[in-house]
Backbone:
């Protein structure tokens, strides 16, 4: 047996060999810090690819049913609250903007800026969820949540709903077609719900990142977690940027 | 590679156990449960998938026992339905999908690439925990009263017509799915970013290539299954009709989403097995794999084509005749890379210097059985033939030839081949040869009659069947008994060898892979210093020169 | 041999009663079998090639005979060979299989139509003459028979191994399959798609009769009312005739002769009126509004069973003039309001459960 092997060779001793690579976050199994960083962001991109496939299943279902039940999808889509959706779009883009600034702050090692940016990202993220709550509440009141309480009244008799001008102007749907709005709303809740779930997970991670950023973990040159989280957060933004036009805008008429 | 960077090995008779290795590096249960070492995680996986294999196997035994007689007399029909559902779910999601990748792949890929670990060791551990949660949920569904959807969860049966623990089972599959996503992700990043200096793509062992292809499928296919399963669970819980035809939903949409994963899943299962076979065949014929790049590219081709054949599960379901044409054509195309591999393995033997240790026997079994499995797949890909054969025992026989005859044989080949590396000890050779031969005979006896049954029209998933099918079913059950013995034996003698097996030494097979150039069992950090790959994969001349060189320097 | 004669007798009887090859009882069977044997030949050939290669190499180049391996890189020529030859064989099988598929799934125009409804766990067959069968189907030899099938609940699959045909029976849409039986006898009918607890009990018998026997059977098992007659009654009792009265001024289009025609819808698209179209138009009328009419027809989703729908479809198919519609018109006041829209979510009693 080679002598090099028989000498005890512990973890710690091994880590010592790489002492010139100074960061405490450097994992011993990576040769260089560069390699670690590249691996991290490559892994994140792959994970996002997975996420695309995950949402892809629902987008596929959406396209299929939209094709089949176009009038129901148009009517139901027009019932969605565009001002709220638009507000949320702006909120989410702002949140993404602050996240990007956060990544920058981490790169230039400004601890205070980083913490503030992450806080702002969190606040805007929460604001998005808040608006979403009111939207869901509205759907609940209108019995647009799929299930036993679902009601097609608004689509069969839009003339009874003068307080909803977009719907009021719609042509009434035949009851058989109006039933299909349930599928739209199911997909709406499934897609925006899954998106919201991603936001909630993201906010949880943000809190953790803020605590660590406050400790100064990410302003000493170790930016990978912030960068990778930034990728995730932007991905969540981008999903919304597909959801908003597909669910809310696609059937809007020009202003009456 | 310099002679000192790779440890030189004494021959096996004088081999001693190294003092320090990954197993004795730390002690205690927690050191295993919280480990980030890919080798220890591989061992965790090995233990857990073996456990689930025997659970799934027990259900297979019960199924065969029930089918001994035409009437459903051992158990009632609904219990039988639970048996085959549990057999399918356990075997597919908890055994076949993680089998080779999570054990052998986990253990070997970093070493084969010359890395100290996978790119994300903690995520690797996380995926084992996810796997265990998935497994536990499956067991929970089982204990609570079982589930009888069939592993395919066909809607609207699974969503509106069954009263069993579908949501629990669906959650189990969802969670276990993320385990395989993370494993695949880890492998891809590791293969891209963690290769040792000099380890170019075309110097990687074919084992790594096939895992790369399988990982692509895991990462891209599994999330689609995840969402399909989520939609099934939601439809069950809330009762809206995204897959319910009475509410305007399309039940075929579920099938599309499900098979979009579940067909590639077949390749997730078989590709890593093909990687094992490449290593084994090369080692025991002491020859470079014939047509290395053809074998490597055929893995990737299988992965790519594998994504575009899912509709062949639905040829009789009223899909458009023309889309059926396209998918049938693509199915035929995906058969070609498999044929390429088989011929390349066969020609690897040519002018070799062949020995017949147990892994080689399993590899021979693999090639034969996989050839049958693959070619009977062509029956099912041919549209007009599929009409008669689909949903019968022919299809059962076909995929067992691929999954058991192929993947399980490959798994056993790999376990025997790398057992000395993982444990530092040899398995008993003659006993293991006996078990290989037993499994081979038992397997054919079990599943060959099922081809005939299938052509006779015996439908799958039947608890009772017309009396004229009994003779063939009895044969099949008899075969299953032999097969069961063949699978129990390794459990016993491999366990025995942990304590009493001969000390293996670093390179008992005189193989060329980097994993054989380090001590067995390896150190926690795998390599003392980063190896430099200065030769092609399967370079036996390099190995010989190295050994000679070291004999002169050390001696 | 110490085997007891009783046991021996039992064994021979048991073996004798077992099957190894299914009967060929339809015109398509020999075609399927021909492809099957070709594929079998291909498999055996492939297996022999691989087996011979493995055996010969394993014997010839075993360690004792060949102590040193000769390293070979590979061979482009060989790679091309075993890419192109399997590809060619597989493509041949693809073409053959595709031709067969189109043959099995495209019925001849003179096929006689029988309806099949699948439900957990039984098959109901409905002949146009009104003969109903459960888990059984009687068909004549020498006559193409098309089955129009639908499921009331989950996926089923209608499989007759002796005819080599099978088709999924799907909830919510018609699927069809056809065959032309050749040999009188009884054959297995299986449900091959897993459909719940009693899946293996969802079996039946196909009885193939000579045309004379079939006529006799039809005569003996008639229920007195043909499907079309049932449909006609339903047409009146559901109030369909109030709008589809055949009058020029009627609010619904005239249904006489509509079957088989190309209809222009109010969104401008043209559709062929077949069984599936008629069924859909009853259940989802607003998607099937004939050009020039307004979308006032209510949906009958949840109000007519699949059997009732089949009766209606069969009735409308047979309407060649509007004579019978006029006759069944009860109170002819077409100005009356359309039948009331059923309240959403409530299930009224099935007309024909």
Residues:
């Amino acid at each position: 047996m080679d002598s090099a092997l028989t000498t005890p060779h512990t973890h710690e001793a091994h880590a010592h060999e790489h002492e010139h690579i100074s960061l405490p976050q450097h994992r011993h199994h990576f040769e260089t810090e560069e390699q670690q960083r590249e691996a991290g962001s490559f892994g994140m991109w792959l994970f996002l690819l997975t996420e695309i496939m995950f949402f892809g299943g629902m987008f596929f279902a959406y396209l299929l049913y939209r094709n089949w039940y176009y009038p129901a999808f148009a009517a139901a889509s027009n019932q969605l609250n565009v001002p709220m959706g638009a507000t949320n779009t702006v909120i989410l883009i702002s949140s993404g903007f602050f996240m990007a600034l956060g990544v920058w702050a981490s790169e230039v090692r400004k601890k205070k800026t980083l913490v503030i940016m992450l806080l702002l990202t969190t606040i805007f993220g929460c604001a998005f969820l808040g608006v979403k709550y009111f939207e869901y509440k509205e759907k609940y009141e209108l019995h647009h949540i799929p299930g036993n309480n679902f009601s097609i009244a608004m689509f069969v008799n839009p003339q009874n709903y003068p307080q909803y001008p977009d719907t009021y102007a719609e042509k009434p749907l035949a009851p058989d077609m109006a039933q299909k709005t349930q599928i739209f709303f199911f997909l709406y809740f499934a897609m925006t719900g899954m998106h919201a779930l991603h936001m909630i997970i993201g906010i949880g991670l943000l809190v953790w990142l803020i605590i660590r950023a406050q400790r100064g973990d990410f302003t000493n040159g170790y930016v990978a977690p912030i960068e990778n989280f930034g990728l995730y957060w932007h991905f969540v933004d981008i999903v919304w940027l597909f959801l908003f036009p597909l669910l809310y805008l696609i059937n809007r008429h020009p202003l009456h | 590679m310099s002679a000192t960077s790779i440890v030189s090995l004494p021959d096996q008779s004088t081999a001693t156990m190294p003092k320090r290795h990954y197993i004795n590096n730390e002690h205690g249960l927690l050191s295993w449960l919280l480990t980030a070492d890919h080798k220890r995680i591989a061992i965790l996986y090995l233990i857990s998938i073996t456990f689930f294999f025997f659970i799934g196997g027990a259900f297979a035994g019960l199924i065969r026992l029930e089918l001994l007689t035409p009437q459903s007399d051992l158990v009632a029909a609904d219990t039988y339905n639970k048996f085959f559902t549990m057999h399918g779910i356990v075997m597919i999601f908890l055994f076949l999908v993680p089998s080779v990748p999570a054990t052998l792949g986990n253990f070997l890929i970093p070493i084969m690439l010359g890395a100290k670990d996978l790119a994300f060791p903690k995520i690797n551990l996380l995926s084992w925990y996810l796997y265990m949660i998935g497994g536990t949920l499956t067991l929970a569904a089982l204990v609570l009263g079982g589930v009888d959807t069939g592993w395919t969860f066909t809607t609207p049966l699974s969503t509106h017509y069954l009263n069993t623990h579908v949501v629990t089972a669906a959650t189990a599959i969802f969670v276990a799915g993320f385990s395989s996503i993370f494993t695949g992700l880890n492998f891809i990043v590791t293969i891209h970013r963690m290769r040792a200096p000099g380890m170019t793509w075309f110097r990687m062992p074919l084992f790594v290539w096939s895992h790369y292809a399988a990982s692509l499928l895991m990462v891209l296919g599994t999330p689609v299954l995840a969402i399909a399963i989520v939609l099934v669970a939601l439809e069950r819980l809330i009762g809206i009709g995204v897959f319910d035809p009475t509410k305007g939903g399309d039940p075929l949409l579920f099938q599309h989403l499900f098979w979009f994963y579940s067909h590639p899943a077949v390749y997730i299962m078989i590709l890593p097995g093909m990687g094992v076979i490449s290593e084994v065949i090369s080692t025991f014929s002491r020859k470079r794999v014939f047509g290395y790049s053809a074998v490597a590219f055929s893995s990737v081709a299988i992965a790519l084509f594998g994504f575009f054949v899912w509709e062949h599960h639905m040829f009789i379901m009223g899909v458009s005749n023309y889309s059926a044409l396209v998918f049938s054509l693509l199915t035929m195309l995906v058969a070609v890379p498999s044929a390429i591999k088989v011929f390349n393995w066969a020609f690897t033997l040519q002018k070799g210097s062949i020995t017949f240790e147990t892994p080689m026997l399993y590899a021979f079994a693999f090639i034969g059985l996989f050839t049958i499995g693959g070619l009977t797949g062509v029956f099912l890909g041919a549209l007009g033939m599929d009409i008669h054969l689909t949903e019968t025992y022919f299809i059962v026989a076909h995929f067992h030839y691929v999954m058991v005859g192929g993947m399980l044989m490959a798994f056993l080949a790999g376990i025997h081949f790398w057992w000395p590396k993982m444990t530092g000890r040899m398995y008993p050779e003659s006993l293991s040869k006996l078990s290989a031969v037993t499994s081979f005979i038992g397997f054919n006896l079990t599943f060959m009659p099922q081809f005939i049954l299938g052509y006779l029209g015996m439908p799958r998933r039947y608890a009772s069947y017309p009396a004229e099918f009994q003779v063939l079913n009895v044969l099949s059950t008899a075969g299953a008994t032999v097969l069961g013995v063949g699978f129990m034996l390794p459990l016993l003698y491999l366990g025995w060898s942990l304590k009493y097996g001969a000390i293996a030494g670093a390179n008992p097979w005189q193989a060329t892979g980097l994993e054989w150039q380090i001590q067995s069992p390896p150190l926690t950090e795998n390599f003392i210093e980063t190896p430099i790959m200065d030769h092609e994969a399967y370079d036996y001349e390099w190995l010989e020169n190295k050994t000679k060189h070291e004999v002169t320097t050390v001696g | 041999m110490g085997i007891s004669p009783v046991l021996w007798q039992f064994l021979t009887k048991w073996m004798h009663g077992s099957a190894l090859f299914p009967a060929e009882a339809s015109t398509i069977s020999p075609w399927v079998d021909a492809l099957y044997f070709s594929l079998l030949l291909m498999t055996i050939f492939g297996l022999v090639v691989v087996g011979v290669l493995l055996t010969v190499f394993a014997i010839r180049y075993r360690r004792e005979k060949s102590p040193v391996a000769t390293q070979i890189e590979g061979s482009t020529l060989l790679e091309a060979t075993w890419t192109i030859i399997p590809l060619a064989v597989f493509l041949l099988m693809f073409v053959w299989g595709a031709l067969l598929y189109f043959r099995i799934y495209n019925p001849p125009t003179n096929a006689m139509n029988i309806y099949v409804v699948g439900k957990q766990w039984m098959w109901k067959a409905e002949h146009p003459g009104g003969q109903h069968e459960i888990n059984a189907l009687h068909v004549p030899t020498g006559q193409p028979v098309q089955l129009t099938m639908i499921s009331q609940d989950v996926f089923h699959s209608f499989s007759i191994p002796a005819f080599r045909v099978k088709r999924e029976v799907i909830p919510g849409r018609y699927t069809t399959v056809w065959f032309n039986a050749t040999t009188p006898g009884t054959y297995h009918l299986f449900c091959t798609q897993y459909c719940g607890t009693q899946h293996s009990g969802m079996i039946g018998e196909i009885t193939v009769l000579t045309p004379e026997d079939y006529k006799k059977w039809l005569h003996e098992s008639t229920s007195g009312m043909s499907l079309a007659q049932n449909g006609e009654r339903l047409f009146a009792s559901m109030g369909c005739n109030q709008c589809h009265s055949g009058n020029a001024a009627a609010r619904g289009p005239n249904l006489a002769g509509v079957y088989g025609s190309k209809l222009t819808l109010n969104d401008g698209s043209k559709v062929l009126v077949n069984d599936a179209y008629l069924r859909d138009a009853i259940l989802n009328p607003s998607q099937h509004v004939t050009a020039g009419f307004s979308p006032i027809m209510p949906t009958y989703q949840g109000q007519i069973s699949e059997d009732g729908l089949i009766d209606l479809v069969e009735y409308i198919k047979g309407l060649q003039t509007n004579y019978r519609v006029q006759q069944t018109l009860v109170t002819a006041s077409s100005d009356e309001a359309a039948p009331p829209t059923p309240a959403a979510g409530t299930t009224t009693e099935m007309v024909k459960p």
Summary: Residues 1-10 of chain B have pLDDT under 50 and may be disordered. Chain B has one domain: 12-554. Chain B has 17 helices and no strands. The domain at 12-554 of chain B is CATH 1.20.210.10 (Cytochrome C Oxidase; Chain A).
